[in-house]
Amino acid sequence: MEKIVVNGGKKLYGNIKVNSAKNAYLPILAGSILSKGEILLHDCPKFDDILSMCNILKTLGIKCKLENHELILNCGGANAFEIPEEQTKLIRSSIFTLGSILGRFKKAKVAYPGGCAIGSRPIDLHIKGLRALNVKVEEENGFLICDGKNMRGSDVLLNFPSVGATENIMLAATLTKGRTRIFNPAKEPEIVDLQNFLNAMGAKIVGAGGDLIEIEGVNDLSSVEYTPMPDRIITGTYILACAITGGDITLENTNASHIESLIKKIENKCCKIYVQGDKIRVLADGKPKGVGLVETKPYPDFPTDLQPQIVALASISDGESMIIENLFETRFKHIPELVKMGANIQVDGKIAKITGVKNLFGCEVEATDLRGGACLVLAGLKAAGQTIISGVHHIDRGYEKIEMLSKLGADIKRINV
Ligand code: EPZ
């Protein structure tokens, strides 16, 4: 079994390039099902979730070739509309393929999705949206069996701005006759990236990132060459790593406007941040102040995917912090592991009250989800002594070899035990 071993106390120095975003790549890969042409995607990160999604595409008859971070998809041969349970169980984003398969084949059979154990993660909004497009959706033995032969454009109101549901409805509507309007959609940058990708293939979508997305159905989509946006969560993870350890790092291939909520929270309290084009420089003395109140909310507010990482920072900051997790009901599983390392955190429902301690001490801890695992790595970078992290497969779902932080001077490695 693989483990990550970190010997804490090293400051971080140097430059590191940020990957393209996992949460942009996944809906874009699902969107490729809609095209009959060839798609070339650049800067493809080798995250396990991406590889799982490529396996789903192969099951549908799409040829996938990944060489040196270049992904070539040949979608002309897509000829299936069912995805086996063992594949959909691996990743939450498998649910996005439902909209694409329906858009292309007007029928689909997809098992309920899997993904991080951070909450119940219902898909009622996805189903409500597809039904609004006149899709007949039946649920049978954990499968969604969909008949879309009478699909047509329609208005869809989301009573919560769900990222996945917004993407699924966009994908289902792209090749569906008529106009579809999505009211109260998610506004995340990944939604804008999906719109840009689909339009580059000939789709007619406007409004992503705002309060109303409008889609005019077209007949088919062409080939395209595309580079998805930088990963804003990896960018935030590296910024927080430097704020925790101290040092001077420069991140390349970033978009600071995507993480304004993080920068506003920690700038001048925990580190100094300088933005120049697609570069972000972080200067930190390793003695952060408490971050005060942090509430996770849909974009553009503070992202839930950076909540575990800012909890690690707050744990060793001077002062009090309060973190409120509004999106996922069990996204505090990293906290008992931090407490084992000496953190002073009281959890009451969706609120974590944190009193910063001088330092944490290394010990054996377990990652139970992707961003919770990243939190433990960040804590280990600071902690006195050695931190040994198991459950590394969770971290590999969204970080390509997180031990690459050693390029910035961290004493971190992956071992096989
Ligand atoms: C996406 O998940 C991301 N995953 C998540 O990132 C991210 O945390 C989340 O958006 C919020 O930003 C991908 O993009 C692959 P939601 P998704 O639908 O689409 C409720 C990571 O670490 N909800 O916006 O599943 C749901 O229970 C992952 O990279 C319904 O009630 O998120 C939750 O409380 C973790 N009914 C809230 O909405 C539905 O039908 C947000 O979920 C759908 C969602």
Could you please describe the fold and organization of this structure?
- The chain is an alpha/beta fold and 417 residues long.
- It has 2 domains: 205 residues, UDP-n-acetylglucosamine1-carboxyvinyl-transferase, Chain (Alpha-beta prism), CATH 3.65.10.10; 205 residues, UDP-n-acetylglucosamine1-carboxyvinyl-transferase, Chain (Alpha-beta prism), CATH 3.65.10.10.
- Helices cover 29% and strands 27% of the residues.
- The strands form 6 sheets. A 4-stranded mixed sheet has the order 22-23-1-24, covered by helices on one side. The chain has a 4-stranded mixed sheet with strand order 2-15-17-16, covered by helices on one side. A 4-stranded mixed sheet has the order 4-5-3-14, covered by helices on one side.
- β8 and β9 form a beta hairpin.
- α1 packs parallel to α2.
- The longest helix has 14 residues.
- The radius of gyration is 21 Å and the shape is elongated.
- The protein starts with a strand and ends with a strand.
- The mean pLDDT is 95.
- Ligand EPZ binds next to α1, α5, α6 and α12.
